[in-house]
Design brief:
The complex is a heterodimer. Chain A contains 17 helices and 14 strands. By secondary structure, chain A is of the alpha/beta class. Chain A folds into three domains: 18-138, Nitrogenase molybdenum iron protein domain (Rossmann fold, 3-Layer(aba) Sandwich); 175-297, Nitrogenase molybdenum iron protein domain (Rossmann fold), CATH 3.40.50; 305-454, Nitrogenase molybdenum iron protein domain (Rossmann fold, 3-Layer(aba) Sandwich). The longest helix of chain A has 23 residues, at 432-454. By secondary structure, chain B is an alpha/beta fold. In chain B, helix 1 (39-47) packs across helix 6, helix 11 runs parallel beside helix 17 and helix 13 (324-336) runs parallel beside helix 14 (351-360). The two termini of chain B are 26 Å apart. Classes of the chains: A alpha/beta, B alpha/beta.
Chain lengths: 462, 444
């Protein structure tokens, strides 16, 4: 069943704008800093949004349009911004993402950049990766995926392409893999890196903000925090053995993985975000195929413990009803995981157009014989109204659902982005057996806490 | 590598070493990671705390998403202001114009939420795609019988300050549209307090104790009807002058209402503010009540505050705020507990502000206009400050560098105004400066 967004206006948005996704991806490239080509506010608002989630400094520059810029075009401001960023940040890479303003006035940014580099002549300048991210088309996720693709395209077209080491320190041949992990937490990226390494593969992650947005204390201001995927790694993408692209929505997106496939015949594994046993098994299966190795014992043990926990937890969970909202890829994987543990995801919602979400959720609904109300292009008022009608046992989504969680007394399990009202958002695990285990623990404990609090007896054992 | 960009050299001033007048009130340098936002932000922050209205952001989704429920401004009634509405323009709207969508959005939202007025914020692309929001607002106002006010806050049309002006213009359209029922001679409007953590209520309470009627609070916890009657007050008492002064000036011109500038930050400034207002009315009874109130409050909080002095004495701070006026009070307040300010700056200060800052500061103090993280970090480290007083955007930078932090911006949930607020502020400073965690950081 589908629930339509019923109003013309959007009320309490359940999506963010495209340049936010672009900025995040550039944060995952070594030595990179993004410039948003538009008004100062775009960069500042996006910084504030990130900072409240990651609790890390996030520098995003702006070409800072003024009134004359929007009349005469943004070339001058863009050039000045590029020079100033180079001067002050010493970046290796400058990411230029457009905004609704520069797109609407019709700025031809690729031409500006060609002219800029032509004028530079042989003077060395940081790499400039350009991406078009008008906020009137798509959401932050479109900005995210477009930027991943722009980076991959840019570095795959460079004449001086590099290779990753093909042997590890023991002289063993290593398979090389590209991973496009989707908008996940720094902790998730760290875990995925660990898994790939345990499969004795070398991987290039686009993006990898696991260090840049979750790093140690500093003794001096790090203009560009350490970490991220290096240019050398990016330039080796054309030689990888396979790519794994996480997120079902990318199946209909002109994605980085598809680009590598079309250009270099690199096999693309398009997978759902690995949450739950089934989806994580699929992820590990792909790794097995690509690496030609067995799943390391460590993960077999994690899987075993997770199934054991499923059994221990099943009574708390069976027949419970959940509402899930957020990015469509997350919603789909979360819904499948919930079905696996006997919870019914009665209502699944995303601010995105969610074509693939609809298709996948229908499939899940059929498979498990449970009705799922699907709501795409949703806003938080739509979601609130459904939550009020359906009275689920708990909510899973970002912290913006807190308003109705509080009003209706329904607990919210915080996942994904943004999490502006809890500590440690950047360390939340969602993926693979380990991430699922943590999610499961949180879900079960949420139910126990509620039951315990509502009990007249006040049991100390539950 | 440049720590300070050439274009910005005149916006960085060291007292005692530099001779020039600091350059200010200019557009941010392209490529500098300015801590400023935009015109829209200026309008949105000023109007946000008006509780019983519909705030509709006309444009693509970002501007509405990032300004949804982000401030600590409290309401004693309607919660409508905490919602964020957007026309969420799509590619086709950009091509064919967004007027129809704006009209339909307004109609349906007014029907659904029954606000007492609506503000329509124009974002960057509205003028460019040729939408006549004035006309749409007029039409809806007529059809629905309520004020529907366009706010011309296109992001690129100036700085945050221009956004304040646009907001004041919209507010001014409301003033004078309803007749105040009982005009009292001894009455004021509180301008430029936004009721963060209930601060407007605290201030209002002081005035009521003094025997002064508060007609309207603009915009903390304000209602449309009250704003419409604001011309009934005899005096505008203006805090945060950067944001709301244009309104005070317009009201003076049209209604002859005088205004005075005050600050409620710190014991000294709060006392001065209340006395100044009391003396304006030349009423001995009020002056006596005010003096008594100040004495009582001081007695209650001053000794408690001075308890922290021994440990805070000699500690150094960086202050980076939106409007410079707040910095004056902060410098005085920190001085009371023996702390000095080594770096001070603002996003939107004017020449007059910076001259005053220069006079207030010790030699060697660095003064910054429209600064960025690199400069703020550089000078805070150079001066080895113990605490950074600023907004959310500066917090992680301070923590990363092993520097304490106190949030003094609109996102905070702590009341820092008035006598009681000063104690809260010093406790906040104390709890960050004295934390044992800093000794583990790389810099300490």
């Amino acid at each position: 069943m589908n629930k339509k967004h019923t109003t013309i206006a959007t009320k309490n948005p359940c999506k963010l704008c495209s340049p936010l996704g672009a900025s995040l991806v550039f944060k995952g490239i070594q030595g990179a800093i993004p410039i948003l080509h538009g008004s100062q506010g775009c960069a500042t608002y996006i910084r504030r949004y990130f900072i409240s989630h990651f609790r890390e400094p996030v520098d995003v520059a702006s070409s800072n349009f003024v009134e004359t810029t929007s009349i005469f075009g943004g070339a001058k401001n863009l050039y000045e911004a590029l020079e100033n960023i180079k001067e002050q940040y010493l970046p290796e890479v400058i990411g230029v993402a457009t905004t609704c303003l520069s797109e609407t006035i019709g700025d031809d940014v690729p031409m500006y950049l060609r002219n800029f580099l032509k004028a530079k002549g042989t003077c060395p300048f940081p790499d400039i990766v350009y991406v078009s991210t008008p906020s009137y088309s798509g959401t932050h996720m479109n900005g995210f995926h477009s930027t991943v693709k722009a980076i991959v395209e840019y570095y795959s077209s460079l004449l001086k392409k590099s290779n990753l080491p093909v042997v590890n320190e023991n002289g063993e041949k290593m398979k090389r893999i590209a991973i496009f992990p989707n908008f996940v937490s720094p902790e998730d990226i760290r875990h995925l890196k660990e898994i790939v390494l345990d499969f004795k593969m070398s991987a290039v992650f686009v993006p990898d903000y696991s260090d840049t947005l979750d790093g140690a204390n500093w003794d001096d201001y790090q203009k560009i925090p350490k970490g991220g995927t290096s240019r050398k790694e990016l330039s080796s993408l054309w030689r990888v053995d396979a790519s794994i692209e996480l997120g079902n929505s990318l199946d209909v997106f002109n994605s980085a993985g598809k680009f590598l496939d079309e250009e270099f015949k690199i096999k693309r594994y398009g997978l759902a975000l690995p949450i739950g046993i089934n989806l994580t098994d699929a992820f590990f299966n792909s790794l097995k195929i690509i690496s030609g190795r067995k799943t390391p014992d460590k993960y077999i043990a994690q899987r075993g413990r997770l199934i054991d926990a499923y059994c221990d937890a099943h009574k708390y969970l069976f027949g419970k009803r959940a509402v899930v909202f957020g990015e469509e890829d997350l919603v789909v994987s979360m819904a499948r995981f919930l079905c696996e543990i006997g919870v019914i995801p009665v209502f699944c919602s995303s601010g995105e157009k969610g074509k693939m979400m609809e298709k996948n959720l229908r499939q899940i609904s059929e498979e498990y014989g449970k009705e799922i109300i699907i709501n795409t292009k949703a806003d938080f008022v739509d979601i609130e109204e459904q939550v009020e009608t359906l009275k689920p046992d708990f909510l899973i989504g970002n912290s913006k659902g807190y308003t109705f969680s509080r009003r209706l007394g329904i607990p919210l399990i915080r996942v994904s982005f943004p999490i502006h009202d809890r500590f440690g958002a950047l360390r939340i695990s969602h993926l693979a057996y380990k991430g699922t285990q943590e999610l499961l623990d949180r879900i079960v404990n949420t139910i126990i806490v509620k039951k315990q609090a509502e009990s007249a007896v006040g049991y100390t054992y539950m | 590598m440049a720590e300070v960009l050439i274009q910005r050299e005149q916006q960085v001033f060291r007292k005692g070493a530099d001779k020039f007048d600091i350059s200010c009130e200019k557009n941010s340098t392209a490529g500098s990671v300015s801590q400023r936002a935009c015109v829209f932000c200026g309008s949105r922050v000023v109007l946000y705390p008006i509780v019983d209205v519909l705030h509709l952001v006309h444009g693509p989704i970002g501007c509405a998403a990032y300004t949804w429920d982000i401030r600590g401004a409290l309401s004693s009634g309607s919660e409508l202001y905490r919602m964020s509405f957007s026309t969420d323009l799509q590619e086709t709207d950009v091509v064919y114009g967004g007027e129809k969508k704006l009209y339909q959005s307004l109609i349906e939202l007014i029907d659904k939420y029954k606000p007492n007025a609506a503000f329509v914020y124009a974002t960057c692309i509205i003028g460019i795609i040729g939408d006549d929001i004035d006309a749409v607002c007029k039409r809806v106002a007529k059809e629905k019988g309520l004020p529907v006010l366009p706010v011309h806050s296109e992001g690129f049309k100036g700085t945050k300050k221009d956004g304040y002006k646009a907001a004041c213009k919209a507010l001014f359209k409301l003033v004078g549209t309803l007749e105040p029922e009982d005009v009292k001679r001894i009455s004021i409007n509180i301008l430029g307090d936004f009721n963060i953590a209930g601060e407007t209520w605290m201030i209002r309470n002081y005035y009521e104790q003094m025997g002064i009627k508060v007609v309207t609070t603009i915009t903390g916890d304000s209602r449309v009807a009250d704003i419409c009657k604001a011309h009934g007050a005899s005096l505008n008492v203006v805090q945060c002058s950067g944001s709301i002064m244009p309104l005070a000036k317009m009201m003076k011109e049209k209604y002859g209402i005088p205004f005075i500038r005050v600050s409620y930050f710190g014991i000294e400034d709060t006392s001065d503010a209340l006395l100044k207002v009391a003396e304006f009315f030349k009423d001995e009874k009020i002056i006596a009540r005010t003096k008594k109130l100040i004495e009582k409050e001081k007695k209650m909080y001053a000794s408690e505050i001075f308890k922290y002095k021994d440990e805070l004495k000699g500690k150094k701070a960086t202050i980076y705020v939106g409007g410079a006026f707040k910095a004056f009070s902060l410098i005085k307040a920190l001085d009371k507990v023996g702390m000095s300010v080594a770096v001070v700056g603002s996003q939107t200060g004017n020449q007059e502000d910076y001259v005053k800052l220069r006079e207030m500061c010790d030699a060697g103090t660095v003064i910054l206009d429209d600064s960025n993280p690199i400069e703020l970090a550089k000078f805070s480290l150079e001066k080895n400050v113990d605490i950074f007083i600023g907004g959310v955007k500066e917090r992680p930078m301070a923590y990363k560098l092993g520097i304490g932090f106190c949030d003094h911006n609109h996102h905070r949930k702590e009341a820092l105004t008035g006598f009681e607020g000063m104690l809260n502020f010093i406790r906040e400073v104390y709890s960050s400066v004295m934390s044992p965690v800093w000794k583990f950081t790389l810099r300490r």
